[in-house]
């Protein structure tokens, strides 16, 4: 099929995990024989990473936009203006990864990677009162854009039941929807033979929403060492701040850790869970994380009681962790996505 993809970010211009998600997904869909045109945004907050190669069957058209702030307003306008110049009938179907509040006149599969209405209370933390006020003023426009994007979709993909439940809570989801969990790149995340010199638990992320306060409390009260990987410089008793590292190095830390702890207060999915499992390392994850839905007792624990889970974590076999991760390769995600595409195309 000829696929049109609309997204506010795509490699090599990276905003976050969605960029990696889309690269892996559409590279695999291209390998399945689809011709893909990606209409991708590029803004000042994006960092450019050059080590990406794109298949010849993927054509990328860039739309520069000023800033990620209130992108839900200005980016769709730029998309609208670009599409007016195109013959959109040459595409069989469109896949959107950002909220598009207008009809495209071809079948649309909309994928939702997050739940901004649920995340707002965490995003407001640390902001000035001016920014918080602007967010309060602008948020009704986001709600309108979100509602129209739902209305104009023929099929919807959510990355977890948790994500779908929050969209349904805030808006009501009347369109047929599917759950397709994220994938993991097992060419990068696999068990490494490496020693770090001491036993430790691992936390990957920053901020309250990801669960950093719970991690600091656990390290302080349990006297267990926790390595923290992320962009912030974190201090505290038994905390070792590693900072931001590349994925190859991250895989080494996963492999060496006793367990990865992810006590998120809200996380639509949580790629760190699959990455850790693929490296053979069990996980302790809160019920407020979408990836908790794929966890069984064979590979980790879903709980808010970190201390209790830690005492039993050594009973988990690393091979069981790897086995679970292999159920969620990007090839699997692509095949499941292709099935939804075909359903939308056939009406």
UniProtKB/TrEMBL annotation:
Residues annotated as domain Glycosyl transferase family: 237-301
Top-rank taxon, per record: Archaea
GO MF annotation terms? glycosyltransferase activity
Q: Does the keyword Ligase apply?
A: no
- The residues covered by the Glycosyltransferase subfamily 4-like N-terminal domain are 16-187
Keywords in alphabetical order: Transferase
* Protein name as it appears in the record: Glycosyltransferase
């Amino acid at each position: 099929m000829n696929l049109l993809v609309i997204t506010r970010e795509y490699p090599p211009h990276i905003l976050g995990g969605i960029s990696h998600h889309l690269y892996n997904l559409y590279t695999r869909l291209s390998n399945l024989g689809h011709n893909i045109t990606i209409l991708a945004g590029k803004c000042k907050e994006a960092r450019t990473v050059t080590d990406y190669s794109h298949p010849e069957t993927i054509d990328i058209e860039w739309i520069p936009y000023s800033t990620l702030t209130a992108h839900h307003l200005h980016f769709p306008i730029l998309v609208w203006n670009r599409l007016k110049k195109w013959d959109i009938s040459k595409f069989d179907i469109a896949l959107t990864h950002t909220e598009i509040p207008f009809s495209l006149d071809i079948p649309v599969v909309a994928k939702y990677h997050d739940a901004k209405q649920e995340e707002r209370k965490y995003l407001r933390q640390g902001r000035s009162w001016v920014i918080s006020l602007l967010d309060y003023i602008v948020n009704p426009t986001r709600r309108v854009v979100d509602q129209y994007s739902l209305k104009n979709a023929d099929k919807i993909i959510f990355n977890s039941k948790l994500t779908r439940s929050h969209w349904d809570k805030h808006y009501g989801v009347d369109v047929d929807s599917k759950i397709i969990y994220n994938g993991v790149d097992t060419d990068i995340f696999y068990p490494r033979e490496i020693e770090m010199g001491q036993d430790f638990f691992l936390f990957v992320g920053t901020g309250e929403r990801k669960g950093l306060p719970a991690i600091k409390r656990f390290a302080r009260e349990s006297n267990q060492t926790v390595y923290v990987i992320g962009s912030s410089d974190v201090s505290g008793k038994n905390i070792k701040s590693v900072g931001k590292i590349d994925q190859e190095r991250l895989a080494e830390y996963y492999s060496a850790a006793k367990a990865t702890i992810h006590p998120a207060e809200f996380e639509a999915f949580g790629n760190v869970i699959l990455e850790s499992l693929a490296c053979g390392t069990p996980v302790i994850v809160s019920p407020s994380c979408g990836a908790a839905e794929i966890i069984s007792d064979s590979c980790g624990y879903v709980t808010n009681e970190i201390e209790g889970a830690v005492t039993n974590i050594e009973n988990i076999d690393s091979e069981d962790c790897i086995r679970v991760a292999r159920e969620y390769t990007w090839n699997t995600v692509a095949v499941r996505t292709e099935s939804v595409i075909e359903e939308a195309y056939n009406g």
